Amino acid sequence: MASPITPFKIDIPDSALETLKAKLSLATFPDEVPVSEDWNYGVPVSDLKRLVAHWKDGFDWRASEARLNAELPQFTTPIEVDGFGSLDIHFVHQKSERPGSIPLLFCHGWPGSFLEVSKILPLLTKPEGKDDVSFHVVAPSLPNFGFSSAPSKPGFGIRQYSECLHKLMQRLGYPKYVTQGGDWGFMITRIIGVEYPSHCLASHLNYIRSNRPTLLKHPRQYLNYLLPLSKREKDGLARTEWFHSQGYGYNTEQSTRPATIGAALADSPVALLAWIYEKLHDWTDAYPWTDDEVLTWLSIYQFSTAGPAASVRIYYEAQNTHPAPRHDARAMEYNAKVKLGLSSFPKDLRVFPMCYGRTLGPVVFEGIHDKGGHFAAYEVPELLVGDLRVMFGERGGAGDVARLWRGE
Description:
Blueprint: E1 6-8, H1 14-25, H2 45-57, H3 61-71, E2 74-81, E3 85-94, E4 102-107, H4 121-125, E5 135-140, H5 158-171, E6 177-181, H6 184-195, E7 200-205, H7 219-226, H8 231-246, H9 249-256, H10 258-267, H11 269-282, H12 291-302, H13 313-320, H14 324-331, E8 339-344, H15 354-357, E9 363-368, H16 376-379, H17 381-392, H18 399-405
């Protein structure tokens, strides 16, 4: 008997909203001293106070909830993951009306969610140009995130996330598909390409995590690596150095003691707001966040099925689940079986010269942009979609993949 695919609507209980408001009303803030308004120290106290006040008394979650339900066709289905039993997976699924559309798995990371697909969904499924390639889009909430359930025991690493999403695509009737990912979506979709290369025919990445080319493994790219750096490449390496020296503390904490920070995130919506809002500010390219946008983003975590602490466990499990190091290595090794597209944005967290990315596999598309950050699908949706259209277009490097669905 086929497992059910059930339509889903976000419907947060009134009691959860009341509890949130009660906790926000008891918020205690740090003293306002000169350094408290300097972003180098973290979220300014004045910003935190403004957002907390708006979350408590001005922000209309029900309006955001209704909008998300109206704009995003959502579903849940149980997925069996080897060794972990059945997980209830929440996902957005929008089919294009155009014949020959390509099934695309969109994979978010942390601190993102299925919300990141909201701006690119209409562009991918209902393109205006008659020659623009179209997609059937699937955007799951990862286990431990959003409205998906959580594994009941430790050891749920990148391989299990990949298995879960691959099985979701099979459940939806997409035996072959392509992927798009950033942040943890890089790792997860890369392992999908390693584990299921006959199903995953191409991958597009907007977060390029790769090793420096070496003479023995990548002689051609090594020669490119030896060339003088352009200004953009120098700026990208400076951005990467900034991330590792000043923006990496969260990663160390979540990779080593997720339960410690998890206690704060689970109990205090103010802690959750500060922890994630810092990333929304620092990881984007001066994106003009409205307070309602920030609070909608945060509320997906606050009201998540597994609770806001669950999402940070992916960092620990990826580092400590045997055989995690081998799977990390496979994600960053050359995979000749899956065509690869790369898009680089200047305010991402790791911005390497493009020759680094070419060590990952047969690169058939590269997009280099002068604006955009870590959340490209949300910050600069037209640029990301434009790259996908070129990559899978008639003359694109993965045009042959698109022709398979057109029956050519």
